[in-house]
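Need tokens for this chain, all 163 residues.
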Amino acid sequence: MEINLIKQDSSRVPRAFVSNWFKELILVLKKEKTTKNRKKLSLKEVSLVFVEKKVIKSLNLKYRNVNKPTDVLSFSGDDFFMFGELVFCPDVIIAKARSLNLSYRLYLCFLMTHGTLHLLGYEHEESQKKEREMFAFQDKIFKKVAAKLAPEAKNDFHISLAH
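Here are the structure tokens for all 163 residues:
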């Protein structure tokens, strides 16, 4: 899958790190037998877009009717060529990572995992059952990728949205 990294903000994005993480994430998801809509993982292209707070706030209001900035938004692709688009706000990610005592990179990777699951059709806002299902799967996948690509951060693999 071709990865388009698009920077529309002034932050420094660790391009090679982000690309390597996303490639490994896709490989892990392809191998996982319980992954929903696995065929989508064979689509040709994904865009990872990095924007400023005002942009993500505007997108969040337009598409989710939430008038505040967020860390990541997911936009599904066309199911023929484009897997989708993940839009990140580094300023929000940095603040949230600090509050969780995590590195920016590790929290960004967690959000790539979260957003990718949304692109595959996982949802957490529809019901508690779907939330538990998505977050448990997300934790499992994140830990597999992180164990391979960031073993030095093993103590930080506790990141979870599950309750």
